[in-house]
């Protein structure tokens, strides 16, 4: 039977090479090109399936993106083929005074920021492009891409 010390040393040695910081992708870091590329792969997986209604695909993507703190207004999808672009915000947006726009505690409130939570980290913010097309079997393919 192993003693606790032997078990502890074996466990520590086996997992010493991996750390949570190195193994996990911070998909919420949209300003990092590597994270954005991984997030785009996550978003692009939407096209792997066919859907009876394209709105179902968009709603599923909204729930998936919500897990990493990104949300968007659901677009109106009409017709058998089309495309649309929506603005993406992070953590519900950014509202209030920030160190960049405040003139002090007694200011008049003209400098209140009401942003998307992304534009201050990534120039131009983040947009989500949707393309949909009806297939010959009466299902829809929906493609999405973050830009």
Which properties best describe this structure?
147 residues, 28% helix, flat, 4-stranded antiparallel β-sheet
Task: Determine the mean pLDDT.
Answer: 82
Biggest sheet, strands in spatial order?
1-2-5-6
Number of helices: 4
Given helix and strand content, the structural type is alpha+beta
Low-confidence stretches are 17-23
What is the helical fraction, as a range of percent? Answer: 25-40%
What value does the Rg take, in angstroms?
22 Å
The end-to-end span amounts to 57 Å
Quaternary organisation:
single chain
Tally of domains: 1
Percent of residues in β-strands: 15-25%
Task: Kindly describe this structure.
The chain is α+β, with helices and mostly antiparallel strands. It has one domain. Helix content is 28%, strand content 24%. The protein is built from 4 helices and 6 strands. The strands form 2 sheets. It has a 4-stranded antiparallel sheet with strand order 1-2-5-6. A two-stranded antiparallel sheet has the order 3-4. β5 (126-134) and β6 (140-146) form a beta hairpin. The longest helix is centred in the middle third of the chain and has 13 residues, at 54-66. The protein is flat. 14% of the residues are buried. Residues 17-23 have low confidence and may be disordered.
């Amino acid at each position: 039977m192993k003693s606790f010390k032997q078990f502890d040393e074996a466990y520590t040695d086996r997992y010493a090479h991996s750390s949570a910081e190195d193994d996990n992708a911070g998909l919420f870091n949209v300003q990092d090109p590597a994270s954005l590329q991984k997030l785009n792969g996550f978003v692009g997986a939407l096209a792997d399936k066919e859907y009876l209604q394209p709105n179902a695909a968009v709603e599923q993507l909204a729930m998936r993106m919500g897990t990493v703190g990104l949300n968007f207004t659901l677009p109106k999808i009409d017709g058998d083929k089309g495309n649309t672009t929506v603005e993406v915000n992070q953590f519900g947006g950014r509202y209030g005074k920030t160190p960049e726009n405040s003139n002090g505690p007694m200011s008049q409130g003209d400098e209140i920021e009401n942003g998307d939570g992304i534009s201050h980290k990534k120039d131009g913010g983040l947009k989500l492009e949707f393309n949909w097309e009806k297939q010959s079997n009466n299902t829809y393919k929906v493609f999405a891409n973050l830009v």
